[in-house]
Amino acid sequence: MCVISFAPNTGRLFERWGLGEELMKVCTQHTNLHIHSHMGHLLQTQVLPQKVFGSNSYNGRRGEIHAVLFEYAKRLGAEIKLGVEVTEYWENDVEKKAGVIVQGQRIEGDVVVGADGVGSKARQLVLGHVDEPKPSGYAIYRTWFDIQERGVDKDPLTSMFAKEDLFFSWIGEDKHMLAMSMKGGKEMCWLLTHKDTADIKESWSQPGKISDALTIVDDWDPRCRAIVSKASFCIDFKLVIRDPLPTWVSPGGRIVVIGDAAHPFLPSSIQGASQGVEDGVALAVALKNAGKDKIPAATRVFEHLRYDRVLKSQQMGESTRNKWHKKNEDKGDDVELPFPEWLLNFDAERHAQNTFGQIFDSLKEKGYARPNVHLLYHIDEAGA
Ligand SMILES: Cc1cc2nc3c(=O)[nH]c(=O)nc-3n(C[C@H](O)[C@H](O)[C@H](O)COP(=O)(O)OP(=O)(O)OC[C@H]3O[C@@H](n4cnc5c(N)ncnc54)[C@H](O)[C@@H]3O)c2cc1C
To answer: Could you tell me the keywords of this UniProt record (predicted)?
Structure first.
């Protein structure tokens, strides 16, 4: 239902798996990001290079990218059950076993990977208590629609999006809007952050009202109102935050959380999904290297491999959000999206392969104890 961007640090992995060409068919390469103030003043045009550090980024519709990855997993022999709920995660340290309960059936595995998102149940078992995410105070209206069907090409305020793939942003105090056309000007999506006080327990994702979204952009650049009004519906997606977990691994070491279950990201990082993929790759390397009889060691090596990098990427999302929401137009503050080398010129598979042995040995000396969280960090609630 919405756009997702996989950055070159994940693009590199997709390309290694031979999926680059297939993914590119459903993806769009925007060449520039035009960044405006909310009143429509062009602040900066950021050039978005085709390749960064030798790899493409992949930006497209979530469902279409997901379908390519889903088919790839099936080709590799993964047995996938859709539409079923894990009602319980379990670990028995005496018997050294772990598993899940699905539709009343107890399933046992060598290792259980809880990639169950921001509302993760696996996380409860890992932490030993319920750790609710906090509302960020913000939510995002998001939608996607056909350009011709919705008359984007007929309106002089929006018709430029029908001619080519464009990527625009508008930033104001504590809010921003993104709009982009994809597939050669055939489809379009927009995202609009807004203040939100609703209780996130009610629902993280619910239908939004276009009329409410229009109220937010009422006195903005008239192009924003014109773009928002073209949609017939939108989703109101609550943005939640969470302080870093002290650990991602269960006491017995056989259940591990990855992706948003371990570390939810603000969308302004444009890295949440990418870091989830990196997690999966690093965990696979750790499990393969350690072998079946050393699963608890493998999951703890994985945690050490990933923890600091993920935290640094989360912090970057926060600093980008602050840069946008608190920019001083008169001072000509920089509003470009960051492309740091440490983040994008990184190969999660090689890194895991190269550092596994060293971490494995150092943890062995400590009896594979859980790590001390040495970087105390608190994500503030100033929005997303
Ligand atoms: C508006 C917005 C825009 C974003 N844009 C980007 C972007 O451009 N680039 C980027 O990298 N990231 C982006 N992100 C972040 C990104 O969407 C997440 O970081 C990413 O989806 C996390 O992936 P995940 O697999 O860990 O969790 P999820 O995508 O949340 O997947 C978890 C899955 O587990 C399933 N599940 C949960 N509980 C159970 C259960 N008990 N039993 C069975 N299944 C269960 C859920 O149904 C879901 O399918 C954005 C986020 C938002 C809100």
So the answer is: FAD, Flavoprotein, Monooxygenase, Oxidoreductase
Mean pLDDT in residue range 247-276: 91
What are 67-94's pLDDT values in tens digits?
A: 999 999 999 999 999 999 999 999 998 8
Cβ of 4 less than 6 Å from ligand 1: yes
In angstroms, what CA-CA distances link 113 with 101, 189, 336?
14, 32, 36
| Phi then psi dihedrals of residue 300, to 5 deg | -75, -35
Q: Which two tokens stand for residue 331?
A: 């001072």
Q: What is the residue whose two structure tokens read 């068919």?
A: 25
Q: In this structure, is residue 119 part of a structural domain? A: yes
User: Rg of the chain over CA atoms, in angstroms?
Assistant: 22
Residue 224 lies in a domain: yes
Residue 118: what are its φ and ψ, rounded to 5°?
Answer: -65, -25
The model's pTM is 0.89
Q: Which domain holds residue 33?
A: 3-62+134-241
Q: How far apart are CA 30 and CA 49, in angstroms?
A: 9
Closest residue to atom 41 of ligand 1, CA basis: 86
Q: Which residue has 């080709």 as its token pair? A: 75
Domain-embedded: residue 72: no
Residues 361 and 286 in one domain: yes
